[in-house]
Design brief:
174 residues, alpha/beta, YbaK protein, eight-stranded mixed β-sheet, 5 helices, globular
């Protein structure tokens, strides 16, 4: 077990290459699958890569005043009721954040949302909530901040990378 994760604070934009470097330098086990660009869970389903692990969806949300931002990570088929979720994460009313906010906070565009996006959150403002059903899973599929590949990695390694970067991360029953 790693005592720490090596994260580069000076990198302006963390993309696929930088993510793979972080994983390799920390001897984190993963599998990378290259594929066509995907924008929806339906697009992901057509890739036929479910045998590699659990596909997840990622929602980038904001509170009603736009002061707090949240990244929600859940199994692809999870029905997320954001009205109920607000109480579980102790927020005010939630709504989907705009693409402008997605770019501002995570330096990502629609279709590329990923837990690795918080590595671009230099001010560490985005809070990450992972569905409790994903805790201790050995292989979940997430984008490396671009939607033309998927990395299958353990949930615990994702959690450690987020914590090492300095963002808040917690599990929640969705």
């Amino acid at each position: 077990m790693l005592a720490y994760i090596i994260i580069w604070e000076e990198i302006y934009l963390v993309g696929k290459k930088e993510i793979l470097d972080i994983l390799d330098k920390n001897n984190i086990k993963y599998e990378l699958i290259e594929h066509e660009a995907v924008y929806t869970m339906e697009d992901v389903d057509r890739l036929n890569i479910k045998d590699k692990g659990i596909e997840v969806k990622n929602l980038f949300l904001r509170d009603d005043k736009g002061k707090n931002h949240y990244l929600i990570v859940a199994k692809e088929d999870t029905n997320i009721d954001i009205k109920e979720l607000k109480n579980k994460i102790q927020s005010t009313r939630l709504s989907f954040a705009s693409e402008e906010r997605l770019n501002k906070y995570l330096k990502l565009t629609r279709g590329c949302v990923s837990p690795f996006g918080v590595l671009n959150d230099n001010l560490k403002e985005v809070k990450v909530f992972i569905d409790m059903n994903l805790k201790d899973k050995d292989s979940i599929g997430v984008h490396p901040n671009e939607n033309t590949s998927t990395i299958f990695i353990s949930t615990s390694d994702i959690e450690r990378i987020i914590k090492a970067h300095g963002n808040y991360v917690s599990y929640v029953s969705i």
